[in-house]
Amino acid sequence: MSNPLVERAGDGAVLHPPDVRIHATAIVEAGVALGSGTCVWDNVHIRQGAALGEQCIVGEKTYIAYGVKIGRRVKINAMVYICYGVTIEDGVMISAGTIFTNDAFPRAATPDLKRLRPSDPDESTRQTIVAEGATIGAGCTVGSNLRIGRFAMIGMGSVVTRDVPDFHLAVGNPARSIGAVCRCGRPIARWPAGEPPTQAHCECDQCGARYSVCGGNVAEAPAAAAVLDSQQAAP
Q: What is the pTM assigned to this prediction?
């Protein structure tokens, strides 16, 4: 599906649909693409080559590095740091003060301390994916070379050092899975931190959606998933 894009041309001119809003204090570099209906608030800095889909919100003082890809209807709250190598899929929420990382072996200088190391990506740069519908709570730190699963939820202040499966609720430092959450965000199951769940099925008290649990994997019941997908596809 194609989306109208905003692009800041090399001469400084801004070309975008009329419903895109960019605060006067924001820095949007050349080659940035913003989807229709996206809002960029005060003192945001978006580096060249980054791309955001339609109807996104970028909160104040947020930094988005060059080449970062962000999907549609993503909410990024204030003072978020998104580094190179991060991909954020549709419908993700990233709460205030979240920090992403991408360097497996970070050093400022060469081993002899005589030269700064370049900031360009190299063999130690790692990629991270935040899958569709996920939520990252306020004040989280996200390590590199990770996948945060579909509709997963990370509790505020957590330090994510390993993958988080789809629909899992993870909290703490390091973050560990303590249960499962529904698409709507409500908890649907709990288990001891770091231990595999024992129940085979769970259901959301709020919206009635049903899920199966097998070997630690949480999956939507096929019938419920089909209904939700058809609703999303409707005009």
A: 0.86
